[in-house]
Amino acid sequence: MDAPRSEKKLLRVLAGTREDPPPVWLMRQAGRYLPEYRALRERAPNFLDFCFTPHLAAEATLQPIRRFRFDAAILFSDILVVPAALGQPVTFEAGEGPRLDANALAQLRDDLDHGRLAPVYETIGLVKQALAPEVALLGFCGAPWTVATYMVAGRGTPDQAPARKLAYEDPKTFEQLIDRLVEASVGYLVRQLQAGVDAVQIFDTWAGTLPPAQFQRWCVDPVARVVKGVRAAIPDAPIIGFPRGAGTLLPAYVAQTGVTAVSLDWMIDPAFACAQVPARMALQGNLDPLVLRAGGRALDAATDGVVAAFADRPFIFNLGHGILPDTPVANVERMLGRIRTG
Amino acid sequence: MDAPRSEKKLLRVLAGTREDPPPVWLMRQAGRYLPEYRALRERAPNFLDFCFTPHLAAEATLQPIRRFRFDAAILFSDILVVPAALGQPVTFEAGEGPRLDANALAQLRDDLDHGRLAPVYETIGLVKQALAPEVALLGFCGAPWTVATYMVAGRGTPDQAPARKLAYEDPKTFEQLIDRLVEASVGYLVRQLQAGVDAVQIFDTWAGTLPPAQFQRWCVDPVARVVKGVRAAIPDAPIIGFPRGAGTLLPAYVAQTGVTAVSLDWMIDPAFACAQVPARMALQGNLDPLVLRAGGRALDAATDGVVAAFADRPFIFNLGHGILPDTPVANVERMLGRIRTG
After folding, report:
1. Is the pLDDT of residue A1 over 50?
2. Residues contacting residue B49 through CB under 8 Å, at least 6 positions apart
3. Contact assessment for residue A187 and residue A223, using Cβ atoms and an 8 Å cutoff
4. Best exposed site among A192, A272, A341, B254 by fewest CB in 10 Å?
5. Cα distance from A188 to chain B (closest Cα, Å)?
6. DSSP string, A62-81
7. Following DSSP, what letter does each residue of A203-265 receive, concatenated?
8. Is ipTM over 0.90?
């Protein structure tokens, strides 16, 4: 390799190197399945307050690294801080998920309020000081489409029907919202990178409910613009895309967005992904979060299956979506033992 | 063609012929979006009673044919009549969906109670008498996996976690349930065909939540056994498979199940399906139900897109899932005009 070799295994893989055993981290690794997180969380019952309190968010980010020695820490935050920083009121009801004021869509700010997001950038600084040099720090944002689904519906929905309906019935209005989110996402990711994250992930959790033409317009094109915008400021920024549920549309996403690597959900066929994604591009994923919760022999078999499926290419072990809150910690240990001893 | 040419356009397409304009029917075409259905439904408020009352179920089956001249009628019924006929108590709460007694799983009957299902077979006879000779009649059942998700959870779930968890934690118990459903599905479909349906569709609504190895074991293998069992009794039975959400796993489903044709959801890339499915095998689908609800220019563009995507092969126009209850009837007429005038 010509590029300087990073101390961080995860960054070496993102640069195109195969590492054995593969680096590993888990989506939502800082979260409710950890007793130390649940104890910490009691110190700021309001979820957004917790995200915006640097010493608490930094501690939540670091907890799973101490316990499991993951190869990457991911900033503890939420994709809905972006709508909040665009002026849309956001709250989190315990056990109910997010609530956004959909009536505020017509009065959004033009620019992201970086003052509101300053605690996030401060959190990044605190985590950087505490992390061992071999552990990468990841920042993130939601993809414009996924963030828009919450902004339009005012909450999480099983089928993203409110945003999908608006996009069909009034594509101009919807496009204006997407445009604003593209610009906001670029600004937010650039500031995270400037504050010290090593790489970023763009979460398109609800990409999988769109038919091909809509997937192109509302997922692929906006993410491509976010990637281009970030790279205009920071040319070598490693960017992981996560188009959850992309399925047969993955090749278009990979070819057109310009992401450095792709994170795969648990439904996709690894053989399809390996064949369709260039051999030097890192893949990340894709254990079923439910088998991690189930544990036992099923977990062993599924873990081995994921490791084997991506054995011949740059690969980051992860889940196909976030870890489930009722996952036993012992199951995470069992999985890690299996990955790390090969 | 060597086979006798059917009067029914839909059967000609299932036999491998291209027809222009393509035949069309809609999943859930008999249902709540029709005012005449809502009026009929009031005559038997209990949903299962309605399904099991032949003159009412036959009338519901025929209503959309009279109004829209679809190329196929589909038996008005529900996939959960099978658990009911296996002895599991099933009820439908208004606005809440189905409720099944999950505690009854250990006391299921060995064989399907065809006496309980006799009204279904009687409904088929009534519909056959009333249908014009060019209209096909479709029977159906749920695929073993999809029916099992309701039987295990006791209700519909967003992620099918209860059945997926049981399948991971106790695969032997889950396999016994699947085996019973394979046998029941064979018996049920054979009786429908003997009663007079021209073809059957196997609905695997929740196929899309399984990772590849589980998809193979709980979707592909059981459906292959159902197809084999039906064909042992009725060798030329046309069978449409609907593995909703199969995505990149569609080729395995097509190659291994033995279905006559495949119905596609709206998320799959038509170019992928056309390339992966043998050229003489009919495809069915795959308009986004939400764009039919939205209407207008978006509906025109999406309808044209589906027609164009499958222009070169045997094709049945349909939705990618059931029609939404709040879909305006005028939108269905608009879509049909567009398909039928080319």
Report:
1. no
2. none
3. no
4. A341
5. 30
6. HHHHHHH--SEEE----TTH
7. EETTGGGS-HHHHIIIIIHHHHHHHHHHHHHSTT--EEEEETT-GGGHHHHHHHH--SEEE--
8. yes
pLDDT tens digit string along A108-150?
Answer: 999 999 999 999 999 999 999 999 999 999 999 999 999 999 9
Read off the tokens for A300. 């062993």
CB contact under 8 A, A268 and B291: no
CA distance, residue A287 to nearest chain B CA (Å): 8
Chain segment A33-45, per-residue pLDDT in tens: 999 999 999 999 8
Which of A160, A250, A267 to probe by mutation at the B interface, max B CB count within 10 Å?
A: A267
The closest alpha carbon to B188, from B100, B83, B52, belongs to B83
Q: What are phi and psi of A28, to 5 degrees?
A: 60, 30
How distant is the Cα of A288 from the closest Cα of chain B, in angstroms? 7
Judge whether A244 counts as a catalytic residue: no
Which CATH number does the domain A9-341 belong to among 3.20.20.210, 3.10.129.10, 3.90.1100.10, 1.10.10.10? 3.20.20.210
Q: Is the pLDDT of residue A32 over 80?
A: yes
- Compare CB distances from A269 to B168, B249, B267 and report the shortest one's residue: B249
* Cβ atoms of A65 and A135 closer than 8 Å: yes
Domain ranges of chain B: 9-341
Q: Do B269 and A291 touch (CB under 8 A)?
A: no
Q: What distance in Å separates the CA atoms of residue B248 and residue B246, rounded to the nearest whole number?
A: 6
- CA distance linking residue B227 with residue B238, whole number of Å: 10
Contact assignment for B290 to A168 by CB distance below 8 Å: yes
Regions of chain B with pLDDT less than 50: 1-2
Residues in A touching B288 (Cβ below 8 Å): 164, 211, 214
Nearest to B165 among A165, A270, A290 (CB): A290
- Across the interface, whether the CB atoms of B288 and A211 are under 8 A apart is answered yes
Mean pLDDT of A18-25: 98
- Alpha-carbon gap, residue A65 to A74, rounded angstroms: 10
By Cβ distance, the residue of B169, B210, B290 closest to A296 is: B169
A270-303, pLDDT tens digit by residue?
999 999 999 999 999 999 999 999 999 999 999 9
A with B: how many residue pairs have Cβ under 8 Å apart? 95
Rg for chain B (alpha carbons), in Å? 19
* Whether the Cβ atoms of residue A9 and residue A134 lie closer than 8 Å to each other: yes
Q: What is the mean pLDDT of residues A17-30?
A: 97
Chain B closest-CA separation from residue A166 CA (Å):
9
Residues of B in contact with A250 (CB under 8 A): 248
